[in-house]
Amino acid sequence: MKLRTKFIIFAVVVHSLLAAMAYFLLRENKLLFIGMEVLVLLSVVLTANLYNAFFKPLNLIRAGIETIRDKDFSTKFVQVGQPELDELVDVYNRMIEQLRQERIAQAEKHFLLEKIIQASPAGIILLDFDNRIESINPAAERFLYLSGQSLQGSQLAALPNTWARELTQVQAGQPYTFRLNGIRTFRAHRAHFIDRGFQRAFILLEELTEAIIKNERQAYEKVIRMMSHEVNNSTGAINSILDSVQYYTPQIDEEHREDFTYALQVAIDRNANLSRFMANFADVVRLPAPSKKPVQLQALLKRLERLMLPQLEHRHINLSMKLPANPLCIPMDEQQMEQALLNILKNAMEAVKSEGNIWVELQKQPPYLTITDNGEGIPEHVRPMLFTPFFSTKETGQGIGLTMIREILLSHGFQFSLESNEDKLTSFRIRLTAEQTK
């Protein structure tokens, strides 16, 4: 039973008893009856005042509870001139004002945090209580080449390719560095926070590719310049000496002249090979900034097809091209991109060796160029080393080709990847739009 009901029942019972007593006094003494009636009226008035005094604060408290339950922190009460009630009103108003200020501060902090997450150059993957992806920020979408909506509710193991394998290995509090396709390097951090009393996790991704490539480039440029200087000085002096020695060939006995000429020619050839060897390295260092002009990709690819046709026919390799009917023009340095694409096609041809296929597909929206071969595929242990400067799996390889391809594509701002699938189909994929500055 509510307190209000109890009070009303009590007041009714008491005043009923007073009314009964007044009725009996009416028979005995009319003056006492009139006095009793006045007393009953005064009691009713006093009871009504006490009712308002007791239950008005309760109504106030009930109204305040309703506003708090509705999360309405803008409603305040006005003082009524009653000291006890005014004190309660003052306490309530201060509490509501503090709650309102805290709510505003929390909303502002939440808004600021959302803005920071959205603008952060680091990728952030937010997980729910079941370790499923709840949301990812724009930087993570750029890293994964996927939208947050398509990943929402997925497990980390459902991420594409190497991402799934690498991110599932990240442990809380232990930074983890990994490389994708031999070119993109990331550092991942896993941490936890408390949400509604329960622990949740998030993964922070930092791309280190640009810094690592810059450091690599500075290191090998310095080494190559020093080596080129020393080798060129040495080969120049040796060439001068060999030319002088050739002058004395007629003076050598006929019996030893052939051996002398052969040994001299071997020395000249080796000296020339050394010069060409260093020139190949120097070409990577001297690669100029691209001079971009609109280039029609279909015409460029057809030209490369004609250039490689004799070698393809000799190896019995079929080159198939799937090109859009309408011309696709992309701003690029035609000479540099021709060299890069030629190296990619040569690598594909060497991977196939003979009796195989190479497919070239050009896509307009978004502009992608994909070169696929059905060669031997890329071994698992080699994939992290792809595009590492001067790394080669060939016995006589210098590792120049992929290094030059990397430098040309990076200088153009083109994103690219080199991957082999389970069917040993290897695809070199290039996005033919300059990557926006983050």
UniProtKB/TrEMBL annotation:
Residues 52-104 form the HAMP domain. Its EC number is 2.7.13.3. It catalyses: ATP + protein L-histidine = ADP + protein N-phospho-L-histidine. The chain crosses the membrane at residues 7-26, 32-54. Keywords: ATP-binding, Kinase, Membrane, Nucleotide-binding, Phosphoprotein, Transferase, Transmembrane, Transmembrane helix, Two-component regulatory system. Residues 226-436 form the Histidine kinase domain. It comes from the Bacteria. Pfam families: HAMP, HATPase_c, PAS_8. It is found in: Membrane. GO terms for molecular function: kinase activity. The keyword rRNA-binding does not apply. PROSITE patterns: HAMP, HIS_KIN. The keyword Kinase applies. This is histidine kinase.
